[in-house]
Amino acid sequence: MADSRNRGQRRSRRASSFQQYKALLLKDLRQEIRTREMLTSMVVYALLVLTIYGAALAQVGDSVDVVALAGGLLWALIIFTSLLGLNRSFSHETESGCLEGILLAPVDRAVVFLAKATSNLIFLAVVELITVPLFFLFFLSGAELATTTPMMLLPLAVGTVGVAGVGTLLSTMTIDTRGRDVLLAILFIPVVFPLLYACVSATSVAFLGIEGTFGTFWTSLALAGAYDVIMIAAAWGLYEFVVDA
Asked: Do the beta carbons of residue 87 and residue 168 sit within 8 Å?
């Protein structure tokens, strides 16, 4: 009887954690659907970056192989756009005092991290669904792409997960600091650089499709996946100390 009671209590705790996670995630999604502040600002910013790319590349004409640069250009677009979204991820909670209420409630801090990281991941994915096709349309529509180009979706997915997870931890660390926009960028770029390097490498190989380089593709993808596992696990474990500091 005691064992069955303990199992029932563990199941109820798991269900309670899931309910907390679902409630926090739905709160973020409903808030964004109602205001559209984060998604709108991220999409507009991405379009401005694409405009700058177009102006810069127009000056060099055909002397630059855009396909060779496409991996780096695409990931620069994603990183800088994600910084804007991560800076806004806790804006509603801090402006309305909602964050203090969440922290006073009996909610596991790891659940708060997971819900916020998931919402950031969803918002980044939505922005990428809009901006990545535009990137192809503006810069790669007339280029000869390799048959392996669709494989760039793999590093794109792995990289986005890492950006959302690590970015959620760092945006929480800078939430109450002066000049948090600059501070987040200063912390975020060096920390995410190994992931960025691996994803750019894998994406470039997918775009170019050079024979004999797919060992590099899978190696880079494995490094990006290992980064995600290690860093998100570390963020999960450290989040309670960060949010209560």
From this structure: no
Phi, psi (rounded to 5 degrees) for 151? -70, -10
Q: Quick one: tokens of 207? A: 């775009």
Token look-up 């945006």 returns 171
Residue 196 burial (CB count, 10 A): 21
Please report, for residues 72, 128, 156, 212, the alpha-carbon distance to residue 209 in angstroms, rounded to integers and kept in the order given: 15, 22, 16, 9
| Position with higher pLDDT, 234 vs 4 | 234
Give me the chain's average pLDDT, please. Answer: 84
Q: What is the DSSP string of the chain?
A: -HHHHHHHHHHHHHHHHHHHHHHHHHHHHHHHHHH-HHHHHHHHHHHHHHHHHHHHHHTTGGGS-HHHHHHHHHHHHHHHHHHHHHHHTTHHHHHHTHHHHHHHSS--HHHHHHHHHHHHHHHHHHHHHHHHHHHIIIIITTS---TTGGGGHHHHHHHHHHHHHHHHHHHHHTTTSTTHHHHHHHHHHHHHHHHHHHHHHHHHHHHH--TT-HHHHHHHHHHHHHHHHHHHHHHHHHHHHHHT-
Q: Which residue reads 């901006």 in tokens?
A: 131
Residues 78-125: tens digit of each pLDDT: 999 999 888 877 766 666 656 666 666 667 778 888 999 999 999 999
State pLDDT tens for residues 148-202: 899 999 999 999 999 999 999 998 888 777 777 788 889 999 999 999 999 999 9
Given this model, what pLDDT does residue 64 score? 75
